[in-house]
Design a protein that fits this description.
The protein is an alpha/beta fold and about 200 residues long. The protein has six helices and nine strands; from the N terminus they run E-E-E-H-E-E-H-E-H-H-H-E-H-E-E. Helix 4 packs across helix 5.
Length: about 200
């Protein structure tokens, strides 16, 4: 379980949120909603250990989550606004970099997001939607074998469906459902509907 207790965040000498407390358990999903600048992206960065909280505590199964940042990084996947792709590398080569870090198979991960036919194309020629799908294919690397718990139970997603067509949103929905069924957790910042049935909303 992930627990946030009294979190506060400072960006540019401005407190973007304060006294924020919530928890997320196995199989649960939370949608982070609110106006632009409300702190959704900042909260995801705090939860990922990329931004220190101004105040409060972040707990994993009751222990300080950030006491061992390497262990915390291993238990999560963070997809931010940027797609973080090397333009000169092919789609398969970009994904292979993350497969070497995390494990997983490149070919099934590409297929999960409908990218199998684009595997050999350099990332620079992909459309914005295709690049977003390639970024999201990293999540497919984390999918466990049937009956096994997820290797990275915590998924932190910042506007994951930006630029996606309806078929791609459906593919992402399949990944999210499989992850939750295996006991994974999802926190997603969004202005648009996401394929996360029964998700709770956390308004900032």
């Amino acid at each position: 379980m992930l627990q946030a207790e009294g979190l506060a965040c400072l960006r540019g000498e401005r407190v973007v949120f304060a006294d924020l407390s919530f928890s997320v358990g196995a199989g649960e999903a939370v949608l982070l909603v609110g106006a632009n600048g409300a702190g959704k992206s900042s909260l995801l960065r705090v939860l990922a250990g990329l931004l220190p909280p101004l105040e409060g505590a972040l707990l994993w199964n009751g222990a300080e989550a950030l006491a061992d940042r390497t262990a915390h990084a291993r238990r999560l996947r963070y997809i931010g606004h940027g797609d973080a792709l090397k333009p000169a590398l092919s789609a398969a080569e970009n994904l292979a970099f993350y497969a070497r870090l995390w494990g997983g198979e490149v070919t099934p991960a590409l297929a999960a997001l409908g990218l199998a036919d684009l595997a050999d194309l350099p990332a620079r020629v992909l459309s914005s939607g295709q690049k977003r799908r390639l970024a999201l294919a990293r999540l497919a690397l984390a999918m466990p074998a049937a009956g096994s718990p997820p290797s990275a139970p915590l998924w932190l997603l910042d506007e994951p469906t930006v630029g996606l067509d309806s078929a791609s949103v459906a593919r992402l929905g399949t990944l999210l459902a499989q992850h939750r069924e295996a006991g994974g957790m999802v926190l997603a910042a969004t202005h648009l509907p996401l394929p996360l049935p029964d998700a709770r909303e956390l308004r900032l």
